[in-house]
């Protein structure tokens, strides 16, 4: 497996927090329409309970940091949905980009924008599905192995 350089330090991530041309970032916690988010998740291929509207709505409502990427028409092309205390830790639960926006740097820029908002004293953690495990190191993210989980029932 190829080694990629780590992006280290808050300033380095802030420098990457620029949306691609024609894309605008916004914080949308408390405002993002759960049905619109569900459509994005479904289109992106991210495995989430997209057929359970109440659960998806609860996921959106319970997130205290949601950064979105929209094109000039307002179409939702990407989102980073997180839980954080804005002081020490952040769990980036969902990162998804519509196929129409993939390959433009939207995902990396959403991660960087999330880190910019969090500030230098707050770490960002995400758990990855197997397929994207090779993608995150290419972005400059550090792989970690120390963790434990109690899985959900469904």
From TrEMBL:
GO MF term set = acyltransferase activity, transferring groups other than amino-acyl groups
Q: Can the keyword Transferase be found in this entry's annotation?
A: yes
**Can you give the residue ranges of the N-acetyltransferase domain?**
65-140
Listed InterPro entries? Acetyltransferase_Butenolide, Acyl_CoA_acyltransferase, GNAT_dom
The answer on whether this UniProt entry bears the keyword Transferase reads: yes
Keywords recorded for this protein, A-Z: Transferase
Question: Which Pfam families does the entry mention?
Answer: Acetyltransf_7
Top-level taxonomic group: Bacteria
- Name of the protein in question: Acetyltransferase (GNAT) domain-containing protein
- Organism, scientific name: Belnapia rosea
- Source taxonomy lineage? Bacteria, Pseudomonadati, Pseudomonadota, Alphaproteobacteria, Acetobacterales
């Amino acid at each position: 497996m190829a080694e990629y350089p780590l992006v280290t330090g808050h300033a380095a991530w802030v420098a990457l927090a620029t949306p691609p041309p024609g894309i605008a970032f916004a914080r949308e916690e408390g405002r993002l329409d759960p049905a619109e988010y569900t459509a994005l998740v479904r289109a992106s291929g991210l495995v989430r309970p997209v057929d359970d509207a109440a659960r998806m709505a609860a996921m959106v409502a319970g997130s205290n940091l949601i950064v979105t990427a929209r094109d000039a028409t307002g179409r939702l092309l990407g989102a980073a949905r997180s839980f954080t205390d804005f002081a020490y830790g952040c769990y980036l639960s969902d990162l998804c980009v519509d196929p129409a926006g993939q390959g433009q740097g939207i995902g990396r820029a959403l991660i960087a924008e999330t880190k910019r908002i969090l500030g230098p004293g707050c770490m960002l953690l995400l758990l990855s599905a197997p397929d994207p495990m090779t993608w995150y190191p290419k972005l400059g993210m550090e792989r970690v192995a120390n963790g434990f989980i109690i899985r959900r029932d469904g």
